[in-house]
Recover the amino acids of this structure.
């Protein structure tokens, strides 16, 4: 210390003063960056961060090139198995880094930890790109943060020990601490501090008070202001880029025959990631059951035992939840890891039209990415015989453009209920070009299930009246004289229609916005 001081005293006064203010400037920049990190850390402690945590990773993983898939899927598996741990670790690490920057405490550790942590965020949650968006081409702020940390470390080394840090004062009492946290050369210049330690404490206290006030004000504003769509002007919806031609391969709405006639039937369902069509010429990176959205239509009889084999061939944990079953969910509906198999059974004791879906948290994201299907349970006391029977599963797509006509999921849209499409059987408007068909006077049975995950449906046939509506597939409970009937998310209803005149009868969700973005088809009635 004496050698350094004597060296400083031999310097010209102007040079010493200039160096002193340069060190002040470096400390001020470090503190300013610490304020940004403190605000970022505060945001991490908000409930919304925990709710979106897995969604950030999944959005980043979507649309990555094949050679990067292993990296992202590894992190998804780790995080989905220990989500609470990773959320807590992220919050604590950012808070510790912010404190280190603001107080100048353990700076060497804070700078390198900050750089490594920022690089990890950049290469996972930001997907080597922009913040939490799939397909972004801009450099993410986490990479900028990493460069700032490394630059700060370099300047600390060049300028020498910084008297505007808690490390400086700890190091004067415990020299080993200085060697642990400083980069300064042993004979580096050390001008006297412009501000005393008491003055520095006052500045630190003022900064903390301003931060507390600003963050509390921001928290109040966040609770009172309505949410607004981000980047709305730049958003690309699937319908805006859809071709004018018909859908190449429509999902067959025809009710399939019973799986079997015995007392027990076997069903094998496989989860897999597949690219599917959601509008004419527009694809989506979906999570599916058996490679389709919806998954396969299952048709069983009341009283049959359904033996389910569920195989997870996806890239993260998945599960199955049958609304037609009464079983312990912690056993039958538990999540399993990729490559695992789960077997369980249930008795289809209640007739009706039911949804099945993935129940792995966040359930919203798994359903919205395509993991749902229909199971139809015929009643033991039959309904009036139908001439033709169709199954329609209504759902929503929440999308972000990955590249070109390829879309991926947008978790923020899912949370704020801003769908780009509302569809029957996975594809917007597909039954306009591939209509359902019937003849005059035939009883047309429609099993309509609302998979959601968020919106209700007001099911309606324009120009028609339902001959019967079966809320629970019990003929004794049939409703008549109904033109429109509500279906909640997760609910299924059975409709009978007998059309007396030929023509084209639109099948719609009478919520007009939803009808305009895909929930519309056609029943073609011929003589």
């Amino acid at each position: 210390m004496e050698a350094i001081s004597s060296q400083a005293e031999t310097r010209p006064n102007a040079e010493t003063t200039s160096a002193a203010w340069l060190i002040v400037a470096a400390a001020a920049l470090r503190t300013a960056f610490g304020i940004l990190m403190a605000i970022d850390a505060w945001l991490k402690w908000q409930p919304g961060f925990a709710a979106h945590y897995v969604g950030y990773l999944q959005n980043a993983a979507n649309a990555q090139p094949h050679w990067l898939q292993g990296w992202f899927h590894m992190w998804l598996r780790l995080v989905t198995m220990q989500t609470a741990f990773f959320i807590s670790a992220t919050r604590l690490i950012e808070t510790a880094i912010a404190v280190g920057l603001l107080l100048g405490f353990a700076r060497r550790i804070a700078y390198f930890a900050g750089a490594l942590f920022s690089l990890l965020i950049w290469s996972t949650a930001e997907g080597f790109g922009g913040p939490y968006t799939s397909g972004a081409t801009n450099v993410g702020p986490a990479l900028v943060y990493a460069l700032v940390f490394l630059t700060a470390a370099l300047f600390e080394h060049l300028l020498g020990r910084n008297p505007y840090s808690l490390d400086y004062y700890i190091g004067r009492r415990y020299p080993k601490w200085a060697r642990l946290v400083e980069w300064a050369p042993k004979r580096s210049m050390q001008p006297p501090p412009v501000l005393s330690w008491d003055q520095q404490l006052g500045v630190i206290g003022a900064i903390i008070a301003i931060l507390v006030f600003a963050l509390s004000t921001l928290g109040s504003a966040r609770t009172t202001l309505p949410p607004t769509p981000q980047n709305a002007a730049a958003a690309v919806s699937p319908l805006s880029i859809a071709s004018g031609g018909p859908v190449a391969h429509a999902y067959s709405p025809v009710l399939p025959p019973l799986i079997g006639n015995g007392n027990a039937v076997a069903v094998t369902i496989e989860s897999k990631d597949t690219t599917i069509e959601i509008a004419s010429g527009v694809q989506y990176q979906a999570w599916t059951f058996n490679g389709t959205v919806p998954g396969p239509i299952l048709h069983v009889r009341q009283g049959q035992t359904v033996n389910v084999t569920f195989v997870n061939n996806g890239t993260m944990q998945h599960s199955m939840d049958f609304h037609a079953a009464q079983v312990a969910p912690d056993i039958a509906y538990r999540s399993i890891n990729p490559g695992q198999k789960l077997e369980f059974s249930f008795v289809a004791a209640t007739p009706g039209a039911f949804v099945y879906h993935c129940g792995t948290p966040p359930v919203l994201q798994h359903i919205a990415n395509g993991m749902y299907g229909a199971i139809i349970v015929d009643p033991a006391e039959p309904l009036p015989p139908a001439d033709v029977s169709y199954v329609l599963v209504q759902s929503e797509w929440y999308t972000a453009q990955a590249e070109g006509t390829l879309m991926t999921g947008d978790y923020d849209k899912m949370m704020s209920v801003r769908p780009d499409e509302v569809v029957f059987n996975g594809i917007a408007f597909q039954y306009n070009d591939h209509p359902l068909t019937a003849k005059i006077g035939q009883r047309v049975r429609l099993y309509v299930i609302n998979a959601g995950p968020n919106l209700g449906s007001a099911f309606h046939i324009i120009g028609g009246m339902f001959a019967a509506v079966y809320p629970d597939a019990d003929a004794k409970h049939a409703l008549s004289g109904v033109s429109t009937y509500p279906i909640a998310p997760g609910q299924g209803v059975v409709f009978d229609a007998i059309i007396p005149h030929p023509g084209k009868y639109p099948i719609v969700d009478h919520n007009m916005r939803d009808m305009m973005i895909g929930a519309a088809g056609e029943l073609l009635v011929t003589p």
User: Anything to note?
Assistant: The mean pLDDT is 84. The chain has two domains: 2-226, 240-526.
